[in-house]
From TrEMBL:
<dbReference type="InterPro" id="IPR027417">
    <property type="entry name" value="P-loop_NTPase"/>
</dbReference>
<dbReference type="Pfam" id="PF12557">
    <property type="entry name" value="Co_AT_N"/>
</dbReference>
<dbReference type="GO" id="GO:0009236">
    <property type="term" value="P:cobalamin biosynthetic process"/>
</dbReference>
<dbReference type="Pfam" id="PF02572">
    <property type="entry name" value="CobA_CobO_BtuR"/>
</dbReference>
<dbReference type="GO" id="GO:0008817">
    <property type="term" value="F:corrinoid adenosyltransferase activity"/>
</dbReference>
<comment type="function">
    <text>Required for both de novo synthesis of the corrin ring for the assimilation of exogenous corrinoids. Participates in the adenosylation of a variety of incomplete and complete corrinoids.</text>
</comment>
<dbReference type="InterPro" id="IPR025826">
    <property type="entry name" value="Co_AT_N_dom"/>
</dbReference>
<comment type="similarity">
    <text>Belongs to the Cob(I)alamin adenosyltransferase family.</text>
</comment>
<comment type="pathway">
    <text>Cofactor biosynthesis; adenosylcobalamin biosynthesis; adenosylcobalamin from cob(II)yrinate a,c-diamide: step 2/7.</text>
</comment>
<keyword id="KW-0808">Transferase</keyword>
<keyword id="KW-0963">Cytoplasm</keyword>
<feature type="domain" description="Cob(I)alamin adenosyltransferase N-terminal">
    <location>
        <begin position="9"/>
        <end position="27"/>
    </location>
</feature>
<keyword id="KW-0067">ATP-binding</keyword>
<dbReference type="GO" id="GO:0005524">
    <property type="term" value="F:ATP binding"/>
</dbReference>
<keyword id="KW-0547">Nucleotide-binding</keyword>
<keyword id="KW-0627">Porphyrin biosynthesis</keyword>
<dbReference type="GO" id="GO:0005737">
    <property type="term" value="C:cytoplasm"/>
</dbReference>
């Protein structure tokens, strides 16, 4: 039937049916079942927030999870407080490490920053080599890679050798091209507006 003679309701149903058929075909073609590497990068807000959302989702599915935060550490964040206070519920399934020294413009000590990043990477690498971890979040790892605190080749090798069903989420702006190429899913957060540029300080529950 021609679309121009259909009622709005019929036109809506027809278009929805075509969309459903397309989606169903794509679902049918997706037959590979394995762990994925997700990279959240870009200058926009929401990279870590998305990662912690996936952490909550994974815990909800009963996964064993690991978290290493590479830069944050000099101040408390809401996600850190939440997941730590929920320790009784997740104690046997969540391994949480805050190992940063704070932002690099605060520490102003490259040797100290490198040492902290290397210590965090040692913990992260052990998680990536351990099949008991179903989900690993490496928060702000991209910053450590951009600053060359950690060699990207080390990270790529660990990702390639990890257990087949292990999911890994890596956050932080400036993800190296080699990591983007190796990842399964990459999202670039684009900054449109940010309250901080209007002089509004970081807010609990939003930035912290």
């Amino acid at each position: 039937m021609r679309e121009d003679v259909l009622t709005p309701e019929e036109r809506y149903r027809e278009r929805a049916q075509r969309k459903k058929e397309l989606v169903d075909r794509r679902i049918a073609r997706a037959t590979i079942d394995r762990g994925v590497v997700v990279v959240n990068t870009g200058n926009g807000k929401g990279k870590s927030s998305s990662g912690f959302g996936m952490l909550a989702r994974s815990l909800g599915h009963g996964f064993s999870c690991g978290v290493v935060q590479f830069i944050k550490g000099s101040f408390s964040t809401g996600e850190d407080a939440f997941f730590r206070t929920m320790g009784d519920a997740f104690a046997d399934r969540l391994d949480y490490h805050v190992m940063g020294e704070g932002f690099t413009w605060e520490t102003q000590d490259r040797d100290r920053d490198v040492a902290a990043a290397q210590a965090a990477w040692a913990v992260a690498a052990s998680m990536l080599a351990d099949e008991t971890y179903d989900f690993v979040l490496l928060d702000e790892l991209n910053i450590a890679l951009v600053k060359e605190y950690i060699a990207v080749e080390q990270v790529l090798a660990a990702l390639a050798a990890r257990p087949p069903r292990q999911h890994v989420v890596i956050t932080g702006r400036g993800a190296p091209d080699a990591l983007v190429e190796a990842a399964d899913t990459v999202t670039e957060m684009r900054l449109v507006k940010h309250a901080f540029k209007a002089g509004i300080k970081a807010q609990l529950g939003i930035e912290l």
